[in-house]
Design goal:
Number of domains: 1
Number of helices: 3
Strand content: under 5%
Number of strands: 0
Largest sheet: none
Structural class: mainly alpha
Distance between the termini: 107 Å
Mean pLDDT: 83
Order of helices and strands: HHH
Radius of gyration: 33 Å
Length: 105
């Protein structure tokens, strides 16, 4: 009869790596305590560092998305201001024309 493999959740994997990295627990002790092979720990460690950049990029993407929203809002406001300026120019022209027709200075 073969032993049932334990599948570790991501939070469990992080906790195991955390004890090694932050609390300086030796890998061999962590592996013995958690019943995992050192090669498995090494694979988790490799994946952790390879995907660590993604965690940082997530914040960058959020910031870029926020800047994109901000840029679109600025563009919309500039367009709205341009339309208002065009309407004002049109109204001024009509006002000047009416003054001329009425003979007002």
């Amino acid at each position: 009869m073969t032993a049932q493999r334990k599948h570790y959740s991501n939070p469990e994997k992080v906790a195991i790596r955390r004890l090694h990295l932050l609390e300086k627990k030796p890998v061999s002790d962590r592996c013995d305590q958690d019943g995992i092979q050192p090669t498995l720990f090494d694979r988790w460690q490799k994946e952790f560092f390879e995907n660590g950049a993604a965690a940082c990029d997530h914040h960058g993407k959020r910031r870029q998305a926020a800047e994109g929203v901000k840029d679109r809002k600025i563009a919309a406001l500039e367009e709205q201001l341009q339309r208002k300026n065009e309407v004002l120019a049109e109204l001024r022209a009509e006002h000047v024309q009416l003054q001329k027709e009425l003979g007002e200075p």
